[in-house]
Amino acid sequence: MSSKILLFVLLIVMLISGCGQSQSVSIDKKSYQDKTDSAQTNTTKVFETVPKGFRVVIVGSGNPKTEVGRGAPSTLVQFKDKYFLVDSGANTTSTLLKLGLQAEKITNMLFTHQHVDHNGDFWNLFIDGWQGPTGRRSLNLIGPQVQELYDTTVNFFRTDLEYRAGLGWPKDGILTNVNINDFTEDKYNFELDGVNITSIPVPHTVPTYAYRFDAKGKSVVVSGDLTYSANFASFAKSAEILVFDGMLTSDF
Ligand SMILES: [Zn+2]
């Protein structure tokens, strides 16, 4: 969930290639329009180059209610040629494709929490990214309640998945070769694709975690939905890029 105000911050963070190149934040209409135009002009070129360090792309920043032209929460953290997708709200798969990144490239799917605005496009991403001769053949599912998300999805679509696999596609990446890291503890720290990832719980209405990505002396932090948290402040300290998910709407 996020506010209109947050959109300005998110757009500025968007398309930053490598940490340490952050731009100043300016909240005025012209600046916002310029950045929007610039982002639209450059969208197809986002993934043509491989960054030497981190790249962060705000794939969606919308509210729980569906909006035209604005996807629900999803943040892509790229480190060199590896991708870490945090949340997959509505429109994630199509937005990534518009930006030049096919779903099959996403082998690390992380979740802050299991609210529908943060996982509404998971089924599409999960199945679309696997199917076909060049589909994803391995998958890491990470975060709270991901075991339940996986089991529910596979059970519901089992006949469909078996049919598609019967067309000749390997089951790896969907029915096999899926590594599930289901969060139930207070803190996690692990390495994945050359990145040290730390995760801590943050306050929300369901189990929710924030992520910190560290590599080559740079840091990216992605929050879930949360209210004030002293733990999160110290967790995010000194990060080069912080993507903070918040909400401010008059109808709530
Ligand atoms: Zn939520």
TrEMBL record:
Organism domain of life: Bacteria
Range of residues in the leader sequence: 1-22
Keywords, comma-separated and alphabetical: Endonuclease, Hydrolase, Nuclease, Signal, Zinc
Pfam families reported in the protein's UniProt record: Anti-Pycsar_Apyc1 (PF23023)
Listed Gene3D superfamilies: Ribonuclease Z/Hydroxyacylglutathione hydrolase-like (3.60.15.10)
Protein's name in the database: MBL fold metallo-hydrolase
Species of origin: Neobacillus driksii
